[in-house]
Amino acid sequence: MSLKKELNQRRRAIEKLKKHCLLHDTNDQLAADTIQYSWQRSTKAQIVSSLQAAPLAKVSENVSALDKALDQCATQLKDIAHQSSMVLAVADQSSQIRWVEASRHMQGASENVHFVQGGQWGEDMVGTNALALSLYTGKSSCVFSNEHYLDAIQDWVCYAAPIYHPNTGQVLGVVDLSTTWDQHNSLGILAAERCAQMLQGALREQTKQHLQLSCFGRTKAQLQGKALNLSPRQFEIIAILTLCKQGMSLDQLHQALYGERKVSMGTLKAEMSQLRDLLGGMLGSRPYRLLLDVDADFIELEEALDQGASHSALQLYLGIFLPRTESPFLTAWRDCIESRMSEVIFKIDDKDLLLKHLSHFPDAIDAVERLMELLPEDHPMQQSLLRMQDQ
Predict the structure, then answer these.
(1) Which pTM was predicted?
(2) InterPro entries from the xrefs (predicted)?
């Protein structure tokens, strides 16, 4: 049997399966990482399959670690796109394309459907596609032909692989390689994974020159890839200066850190001197500011919320932000983030995502209440959720 005939048979089988899946709500029988489950999520999100192109939005001017890695790898990635006659795109954790290179074979097709820089390819916007599926599952994926939800891309086959932060394991984005369905190659996923590994290598080099902070739940800091032993107060100072990139005077920093507590300026000056030594001198004064790049989970969370990337936000929110801090500045920021996260939770329709969030936050009443809204009244979990709500 010729390859094209075999692929045509596969398309017919997919169409039959899709019709059955969309006519019968079988969520409880499907794994969250399956294409069938993605079809049903797309239907519930009321995606119009006849949509001709993805939404476009202005790309943020903030230069992320992923953007810097792309700058390093751009030449190699362009070569891969042209040699393979594919379009190669890299999207951030919100599913927005940050970088793209199209071969002559795919350029017109990719422009027609907005598979271009600024294109928003989240499942909640365009339905099932490999880019969104890999971000949702954290795994490599292939979406072939009419497995796509939109009619406009059913002539495509797409291979995607997530890009992981080399130290934290957090998914920062995804690489997608796409071509026409009749050019399907079983090695496509391996090619996407190779591109993701290339970017992860560039990210690894960056971390050697960066300060990395994790402040949700258990605090952790790394400088040039090595663990940095910071006191709780030093963590607070760095968090404040990370949020205030323009810097702060001594008086401003004292107020942000201590508020009305009776702590002398001399004590703060001593803290800053010790912190400067720990950071290898990379702490400026007049105003006080950090002189090195900082990758912080709380900044990533804030950006994810700004971009409407609820799935990424919940993945990042793994514990209370600096739970013991008494800094008025940081507690106000934490209260704001918790309020925004609660708003996100009450808009989520994905039960699996909410259950995963509850595994990190058993006391998250907003997630409990949202699950109770989503589950049928006779669902076995309703009683246990009710007990959690009453505690």
Answers:
(1) 0.67
(2) GAF-like_dom_sf, WH-like_DNA-bd_sf
